[in-house]
Amino acid sequence: MASRVAIIGAGIGGLTAAALLAARGADVTVVEKAAHPGGKARQLIVDGASIDAGPTVFTLRDVFEGIFAACGADLADFVDIRRADVIARHAWDPERHLDLHADPELSEQAIGDFAGASAAAGFRAFRREAARIHGIIDRPMMRGSKVSWPLPLMWRIGLWRMGDLLAIRPYESMWKVLGQHFADQRLRQLFARYSTYCGSSPFETPATLMLIAHVEAQGVWLIEGGMSALAGALMRLGQMHGAKFRFSTGAALIETAQGRTSGLILCNGERIAADAVIANADPEALAAGRFGPLGAMAVPSHGVRKRSLSAMVWLANARTSGFPLQRHNVFFSPDYSREFSDIRGGAPPCDPSVYVCALDREGGADVPPGQRERLQIIVNAPANGDSHTYTEEEKARCTQAMRRSLQRCGLELEEDFPHTLLTPNAFENFLPSTGGAIYGRASHGWAASFLRQGTRTRIPGLYCAGGSTHPGAGVPMAALSGQLAMQAVVQDLASMRKFRPVAMAGGMSMRSANADAMG
């Protein structure tokens, strides 16, 4: 009989684990409280338009190509993906903007034109350092199981490579090290923004995370239908191999028998027997007892002070004018440090940097005059959605601050534009017990990456997956967490002689981005 695996949550991590396990012959059931797959990768309807309400930047395409190949399929047969020529457009005032390009030589030229030859040289040095850090960390940590610091990581990297261990610069802040590359504070601010990809402050994040810039430089991709289309593709991949999905059905209780996980009790009282359970939920939900007292014993809580950032997110269908939008745009505040001090003080920034994803823009194409376009607009905010209720007055004040930042850079939104505003309260409701922290634990301090919840828990047969677990936040990281969960389940059940291996096309070999670049 095939091993039975129950998965709580149809986010990217859970969907990945479901497809890979089903392809190996497991009897997989996924239960999801929402009516659709994707978790954070979802869409909401605003003014009759479907607008992405979750992640919008898609990188590390090779991760997903490997997952689909391991299931005997081709990613390109499931979703329409194309490379973005412009990674992102950046602005500080209405006079000029700076584009980073898929072609690094074009980026270097743009930076030189923007800030001079010394800035271009700094960019070259920064690129080399970010690439080296990525090369050291990629397979041992990003694509491998969780390790502790420093000896286990040293062993995995290679004990003779002490220079590599020091080269990842874990004890220096990203902000400090970026200052060694860029004298122009605008460029320092631009590349410091990558810390917010994992919900953290560049003033507290280790310089190790400069590797995110290298990941993005390898390729930003546009998916027809947005990230929810990728979630749908992963679900269909699992269904091809027999995985079952139960939507609008929540898990209430994790059961154990004889010292290990034995199944799930659903909110409707139904029981699903399982030899293994994967929780594709924020570990804080487990720690808070959202899935019963045994689940609470399985993982530790990182506490309120270790939470990542939350956000104020406007999902808008609006007419715009002025600034020439690309798909991804960042409008920077004049005082970056104040932004994060405001957040540490428990309030959204009074003068914020603003990210705008213009969902209908590609390659700099204009939207016809007078036509509304779909926008996702993000301002960082504290994860206090469980301790502070945002009033209508506060929401209006945040909206005014966001609009002032856009206007300072030349972008105008129509008055009274149709929108839905998601606050940390909304994210706490969507991600219970997190305060609305979108990225799990903040990556502050040298040890943060090693303290993130790993795949295995204290209860045998219970595993974690998702962007709040190892290896980290983001769509490809969530997928890698699902792959790690699959590997742990297979290994542990095989050791109990319960798992029935099934031959499958493609195997589980996954080429890294480095291998692709070298090959």
Automatic annotation (TrEMBL):
NCBIfam families: carotdesatCrtDProt, crtI_fam. It comes from the Bacteria. This is Amine oxidase. Belongs to the carotenoid/retinoid oxidoreductase family. GO terms for biological process: carotenoid biosynthetic process. The lineage of its organism: Bacteria, Pseudomonadati, Pseudomonadota, Alphaproteobacteria, Sphingomonadales. Pathway: Carotenoid biosynthesis. Keywords: Carotenoid biosynthesis, Oxidoreductase. GO terms for molecular function: oxidoreductase activity. Residues 12-489 form the Amine oxidase domain. InterPro entries: Amino_oxidase (IPR002937), carotdesatCrtD (IPR054841), Carotenoid/retinoid_OxRdtase (IPR014105), FAD/NAD-bd_sf (IPR036188).
